[in-house]
Amino acid sequence: MNGWTFEGQPGALGDTTVTLVEGGSFCVCARGGDIVPGGAQGVYHADTRLLSRWELRVDDAPVEALRVLTGEPYHATFVGRAGPRPGRAESSLLVIRDRYVGGGLREDLTLRNLSDEPAGCVVDIHVSSDVADLFEVKAGRVRYVPDVEMTPDRSGLLVFSASRSRGARVLGEPAPFAVPGMLIFRVVVPARGEWTVSLQVNPILEGEESPAWFSTHRPVEHAEPARRRADWARLSPSLSTPDRPLSQVLHRSREDLGALRLFEPDRPDEPPSIAAGAPWFMTLFGRDSLLTSWMALPLDQSLALGTVRRLARLQGRIDDPLTEEEPGKILHELRFGVQTGAPPHGGRAYYGSVDSTPLFVMLLGELRRWGVHGEAVEELMPNVDDALDWITRSADPFLFYRRKTDHGLLNQGWKDSFDGVNFADGTLARPPIALAEVQGYVYAAYTARAHFAHEAGDQGLETHWTDQATRIREAFNERFWLPERGYYAIGLDAGGRPIDSLASNMGHCLWTGIVDEDKADAVAAHLLSPEMFTGYGVRTLSSGMGAYNPMSYHNGSVWPHDNAIIAAGLMRYGFTEEAQRIAFGLLEAAEIFGWRLPELFCGFGRDEFAWPVPYPTSCSPQAWAAATPIQLVRSLLRFDPWVPRGQIWVAPVGLDNLRITGVPLAGARIDLEVADGDVSVTGVPAGITVHSEPRHPMRAALHQVS
Fold first, then answer.
1. Domain covering 17-218, topology
2. What's the pLDDT at 6?
3. Which CATH class is domain 236-643?
4. N or C: which end of the chain has fewer CB within 10 A?
């Protein structure tokens, strides 16, 4: 089995599980804290399930769950009670499990005796591991290897599979009595007192053990993830508003993005990149990481720099049909599991994405517009040109995709499920396929390169890329526009025929500015029509299409990041009311989802169900969903910097009584305040003019800039 070509959906985790994340590690468990075998629960690191069972028993009986208290994304406290003591009707033994995830696991287990008599009891922790690859678990096809050995020693248990060269060491302080599959503690809990044991799970990769990031040998607040989180909170912009839901949603976004950051151990001074999301995508992705770091720019720009640098290091160098690597191409995802045959630290890249490469160029162009990391952006210009070489070798004028072998993804845009691209009658489109939004990304990439050339004073190169942008824009509006229907086709198929379904993809085309202004009214009307807009967001596919299914992954569901891009596109073309409907619909949905937007939710109309219906296998937290509220606020502020040209546009709509301090821009920190319909911007670096009006949608074209 190849995980990249798995076309099903992973098993649902359900609403009774808890997911904790930190960097490339995560834990999925029951609400009582137990990890129950037989499903997707477990402790994961480097795309490997270190533990598939972790069940607590007190006097051979399970603990009754009372409450789970979640704090930081990597930490939860599970509160429960043991069974009644002998001769008693009610329990007097409180059980507290403080769990920290990161590079393995730390759990501080406390038994608190609430009675006047000492409690003698036996505490057992049942431990098991299948050392399974993440792809196997996701597909529900775990290949159980027979050589997973569990060896007791003085400090706990050693779990190891020689064939996979992976495992874990489980330690306890005080040391337990260990037998294969179980840690045993015989304890006496003093009257009105406590007994505590600290447990630690260290990963073993390629035979090498590394300590969990939250070590039992030092206070939790001194652990690297805790220090990074404190710095992240301290350096992030702060928001002041009486609008509690908005404040809560943005706080949750900041917390989740901080936990999804990826730091490279061998590059401690390098800014982080960002993982796509838990539980199945806790690794670097091309498209996801690029779009997330773009949307997070008002919060932090180091994510964008770290992401583009890491992607540049992994940029394609050779032709390899099995991984779809090609010179200049930006990867789709990086994996570390046994199944990929990858080293645990280097990882193995798969390149089956048509949009990562233009998005890479776009993000570098946007960093330039924000006036940050100028030298670093300049250093990556060879990578930009390599990326554009790959695009122009493949595009004439449109950029198509078709997988190289049957090991690759069939669809290679963001709607990458096997049935994600279809005609209005439901017929699946056959590759090679040119997607509408991808042509918009290519247009924006060409335009960004023209701006780089303009600033370098290279008029010939500027003209070349401006001509390239003009050519694809004109061809796109001619070939993709369906005049009899008033919207853009989702793509062109193998025969060059327009794929005529009404889908959300054209909203991305508004965002990139490739849409002709005389067509924008019709596009906006379709996106906000009852067939597309649910009241909480725009569906991926219109309810009038043959493949429509509101409970599907890409054919009628609502994706927050998709909607954030659509709202930005609508705002760019001046459709402020329509953009606000989407923005506030999503923010209402976030409140209902406990302040955290999921990867996607079902596309039922608000008139049918008052609350949004969850999608069972949706990732949460998920990176671009976490970044969505930040992008929505930027859109509502209509905040658009162009630092190299010495200009900033800001013209808020739908927001009031709002103050944001410490927004990074051009090496400075600026403050924005919206009150009584007016906006003020302070701390702007010298030489930059603030315009209290929105930027014209076509202002990105060089020949239209004064």
1. Beta-galactosidase; Chain A, domain 5 (2.70.98)
2. 47
3. mainly alpha
4. C
